[in-house]
Structures are given as structure tokens and as C-alpha cells.
Amino acid sequence: MSKTQLKVSVTALMAVLLIGAPMRAQVTIGANIDPNEGSLLDLKEYPSDQSVTSTKGMMLPRVSLSDPAKLYPMFTGSYDPAENAAHVGLTVYNMPGGCYPWLPGGVYVWDGAKWESINVEQSAVAPISTVDIEVNEPANGGTRILTFMTYNLGADPNMSIKEQMAYDTQGDASDITVFGGLYQWGRKDAEHSLRCDMDGADASGRFTDQQYANAADATAGGKFVYDPQDVYDPHDWITPQVNTLWGNGKDIAFGGNGFVDDGFGGLNEVPLVKGPNDPCPDGYRVPTEYEWALLGSDDNSPLTISDGFDMSPGANGTTLSSGLTWVPVSEGYGLDTWVDGATCGYALYKSGTGTDEWDTGNPYTGDLTTDTAPEPLIFLPAGGWRDLNSGDVRESGTLGQYWSSVVIDDGDSYFLYFDNFSYTDGRTPGVQAANPATGRAYGLSVRCIAE
User: Fold this and answer.
1) Buried b / exposed e across 266-305, counting CB within 10 Å, b at 16+?
2) Dihedral angle sign, alpha carbons of residues 450, 243, 176, 346
3) Which of 284, 275, 280 is nearest to 243 (CA)?
């Protein structure tokens, strides 16, 4: 049909509607029958005393929702927040797949803040699931409770930890269900973190090779900023750099970043400030480097990830003085051989001989996702990373990198790094933290912690 024919057809349709119901606000579609008194729009083929008025149904618009808490794909990039309230009641049929394959198909209604399924007990945004982890804190001579979300940002929030460990990606590294999104440091928008375009070919227009001048522009664009010519110095998606987008740039670590000497042999802690672009939900933020280090602390008074973190490999796990044990997991089993694209990573357990504790002297050897297996505190999947030069997503299933909120002077930011590779230069798999900082334009995983 040509554009001229389309205009004629639309004009004719409008004329029929206007002529068929002059000066009336109520309309029947499907038959020349008056609408019911309380109906603004009535769809029916014939009148009926038995309530049945049609042999056919209404076909809702079929879309692939690209963000459970945004009006996408109705808008592209940023939009006026007033549109959220203006679109309350917007109804669509979600086609499963796309960037959020874990979002079930079905009818969804926009409630002003998120997409709600009309199915019972099903929503696009689930309640936040968290876990409290008690860790030793040698710097203060005591313990600390760290409250982490139980899933990566952008991953399916409805899955239990064991369900995450058991999930089968079918070798698809673009599956966001457990891996979650890959965020550039300092960015808030979720759209740029999606795994839809694995090879950076930009078939969907989700990439740009132009650095943003401010954070608001990045939200507006929603595109992953990459550097195919390798000219950005420092490696950041924004110029000039802003060190406080994910916090005040500080850490709760000894040595001037957060703990300061009070002059009496003690330490005072500098309060943390959640940054304006922190992508975590209300009440949560990106962890500091020191908080990551505490999860792997042993006897050496951890101050940074490289000082304190220990995830040495081995199916029996690594028990730390903090009373915790890290266990390498591959597709639900305690294995130190990982598979590219599969759901692999590290699970954290309480150490001991109890039912839900990990005994390194007599480790559990079966399926770690069954009801009889010990209950993990947390699981960090090896979600890979997105390259800032090519835009490719790499090493999902064999390498995990998680951002911290802390920056360093040369323009990079700290992160947690673990892998399961075999090296020929004397290194061992596990956490390699000799240089635990990288350019902020790389796409890495995010796991949120409570404020």
C-alpha cells in the first residue's frame, strides 16, 4: 500500500466513525449496535442477553519490553519523567525474549513506575531479595554485617541463589537472566548495559563512538560508548571525567580513602555518599572496594581487594578466617573447570559442619542446587565484560568483574576480578588483583549493597 492509499484509508475510517456516531463520545466497534451505557468503547459483533457478544477477541499491541521499570520501547533513550504518570494504564502484550528473556510473556499494565502483569503474583519488578553476611573487620577489631542483593543488577530478581547456580544458559552469553547487565562506571541508565548486541556490530543503533559531555546526555542517549580508534585518554565514556557519579569517590578503607587516624590510635570512618548516577535501587548502592575485600578477608587486615581477597581455586573451596568459604561452581556443581558461556562463578558459604555450612574437610560433592545441599549466602556469576574498543561481550562464564564505587587518581576505578583460566606465567586461577582497576568505559557487572 502506498503512502497516498494509506492516507485515504485512514481518512475514510475516521469519516465512518464520525458519521456513525455524530456528537457522541461512546463508540461500538464490530457492529452497528449502540454501546452499553457505561462503556466508552464497546467491542462486539452482536447483542446478547447471555453476555456473549462476539466470537472473536481483541488483539493487543505485541511488544518486547526492554526495561521492567521504563516506558521502553515506547520511547528511545531518555524521556520526560512526567510521561510515567501520563501513561498509567498503558496496556501491552509482552513477547518473551529480547533483552529481558526472563520477563514472562503476557499482558502487562504500566502503573506509573513499572510494568505490572495482570497474572496473579507476577510483576515485572519483584521485591528486592537480600542476604546479611557477617564478616570479620580486622581494621576495627570487630565484625561487620554486609547486606547484598542476591542477584546481579539487570538479572532476574525472582530466582533463588540455587536457581541461579542451576540455570542453563544453553551456551548463550547474551542471556541476562543470571549474568545481568554490563555497566559502564558512573552510568545510571540500564539500557546501555543490556547484552542484546554481543559483537558490537551496532545493528540496533545501541552504540556510539562519541563521548558524552555530561551524565544527563548519557541517560538521554542510552547508548554504550565505545572507542574503536582507541583515542580516549583516560578510557571513559564522559569527558571531562566526574569522580563522584557513583559516590563521593571514597572508600571505607584505611590509608586516607575512608578511615582516618583520630590521633589516639583509633580510626574514624568517613561517611559514604551515594552518587547521583548510582544505578542501584533506592536504599542500595554500588559497593566500595573495601566492602568487596571484606568478603574475602583472611588474617592480613584487608585494606583493598588486592590486599585481602582470596578465592583460590579448588572444588573443596577456600576457607577464610572470617568463617566463610568460597566455592567455584559450574552449572550447579562444585567444579574448578568452567565452561565458556555457561553459568559459572563463585558461591559463598558459612564454614563449618552444620547442615547449611561448608566443610572443606568433607566437602559436599553432589549437585549444589538440591534441597539437601548447603545453602549458599551469595553467588557471583562470571558475567564477563564488554570491551570498550570493539563493543564485544567477552568471557561470560569464565571471568567475573564487578565494579566498586571507588576511583583512583589516574582516571580508572577499582573492581573485583576473578576467573578460572589456566596460565603459563605462574599465576593461578581465582582472584587476580595485582592491578584491580580499569577504565570506566568498560562494561562490568554490578552487585548492589544496602546503604
Assistant:
1) eeeeeebbbbebbbbeeebbbbbbbbbbbbbbbeeebbbb
2) negative
3) 275
CA distance 217 to 238: 9
Q: Which residue did the predictor score with more confidence, 49 or 389? A: 389
CA distance 424 to 404: 29
Cell digits for 137?
Answer: 573487620
Q: Where are the domains of the chain?
A: 3-43, 60-125, 127-451
Would you state the cell numbers that stand for residue 369, as one nine-digit string? Answer: 542446587
- In tens, the pLDDT along 116-136 reads 888 755 555 567 999 999 887
The CA distance from 187 to 242, in Å, is 11
CA distance 432 to 418: 6
pLDDT per residue as tens digits for the range 12-33: 444 544 454 444 578 888 778 8
Nearest to 302 by CA among 311, 294, 310: 294
Rounded Cα–Cα distance for residues 301 and 282 (Å): 31
Cell of 342: 555457561
CA distance 100 to 94: 11
3-class SS of residue 144:
strand
Cα distances (angstroms) measured from residue 368 to each of 158, 159, 347, 412 = 19, 15, 10, 37
Ordered alpha helix ranges (H), 188-310: 215-221, 289-295, 305-308
CA distance 187 to 277: 6
Q: How many Å apart are CA 292 and CA 79, to the nearest integer?
A: 35
Chain center to CA of 179: 8
